[in-house]
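Re: that backbone. Tokens:
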């Protein structure tokens, strides 16, 4: 081991010793108690020999070591006990202080949680209100659409009913016209048959008969009409007798027969 290593090891061991509580306390108390020789040694302009002489004569005594050692011992023994007593006295205060700190934090956390829950509820309410508004808007649109469809269907039904009514009316009209044509055709056929069945010798006599177009009463005053002719006209439906007034009335068939006969004999 070299000399520098020995020096280094010495300083390291010294440093470790100084780290002990009593060593540090003794060093500090020694410097404080013997501050005058320390300052003299460090800052005096005298020679080192004079400094040593002055220090040996004035300051080097038993008390210069005893009092710093006593102070260091008292400091090392009493200060920890005093600190422990103080800590014990302050422990409840510290606990209360810690409790207060965490109570405040807990209260703050509770308030934050409550506020967050209120915000969450508010967002849910706003979201729910928005969804309700959307649903109401959809329901309104569906109702309007349903009303439009219903109105459209009603209009279509009304239009179809009108068309059906018009079609039925047109069908009835066509049916009436068809029936009228059938009746007229039947009447024409019947009149034609009647004309063909009338003997030729009395056709001229029938064509001369006159009647009132207003009342339909046949006038026999101008022509000498036999009873046989009158009976024949009644039998074939050309004329009919009214027993209430004893007048002879011409029928619609008779009007058509007379019209054809007058046209025939006017040629």
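Recovered sequence:
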């Amino acid at each position: 081991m070299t000399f520098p290593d020995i020096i280094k090891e010495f300083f390291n061991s010294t440093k470790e010793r100084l780290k002990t509580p009593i060593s540090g306390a003794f060093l500090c108390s020694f410097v404080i108690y013997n501050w005058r020789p320390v300052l003299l040694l460090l800052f005096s302009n005298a020679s080192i020999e004079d400094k040593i002489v002055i220090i040996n004569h004035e300051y080097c005594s038993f008390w210069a070591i005893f009092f710093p050692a006593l102070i260091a011992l008292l400091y090392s023994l009493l200060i920890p006990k005093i600190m422990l007593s103080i800590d014990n006295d302050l422990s409840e205060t510290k606990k209360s202080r810690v409790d207060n700190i965490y109570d405040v934090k807990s209260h703050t956390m509770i308030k934050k949680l409550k506020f967050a829950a209120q915000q969450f509820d508010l967002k849910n309410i706003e979201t729910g209100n928005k969804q309700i508004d959307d649903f109401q808007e959809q329901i309104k649109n569906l109702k309007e659409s349903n009303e439009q469809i219903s109105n459209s269907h009603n209009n279509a039904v009304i239009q179809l009913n009108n068309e059906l009514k018009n079609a039925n009316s047109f069908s009835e009209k066509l049916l009436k016209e068809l029936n009228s044509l059938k009746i007229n055709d039947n009447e024409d056929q019947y009149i034609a048959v009647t004309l063909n069945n009338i003997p030729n010798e009395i056709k001229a006599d029938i064509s001369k008969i006159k009647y009132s177009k207003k009342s339909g009463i046949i006038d026999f005053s101008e022509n000498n009409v036999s009873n046989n002719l009158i009976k024949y006209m009644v039998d074939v439906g050309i004329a009919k007798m009214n027993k209430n007034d004893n007048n002879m009335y011409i029928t619609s068939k008779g009007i058509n027969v007379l019209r054809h006969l007058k046209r025939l004999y006017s040629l």
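The longest helix spans residues 63-197. The CA atoms of residues 38 and 105 lie 54 Å apart.
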